[in-house]
Amino acid sequence: MIISNNAVAAVAAYNLDQTNVSLRKSITRLSSGLRINSSVDDPGGLAVSLKLSAAIRRTDATSNNMGNALSFLQTQDGVLKTANDVLLRMSELASLASSSAIASNDRALYNTEFSELDDQITNMLQEDFNGISLFADPSAILPLRTTISGVQTMGITQADLDSIVDSVTTLGVATVATATVASDVLETAIQNLAVLRATNGAEQSRVTFAQDILEVNRTNLEAAHSQIMDADIARESTNYARNSIIAEAGVAMLAQANTISERALKLLEFD
Question: Are residues 180 and 121 in the same domain?
Answer without folding.
Answer: yes
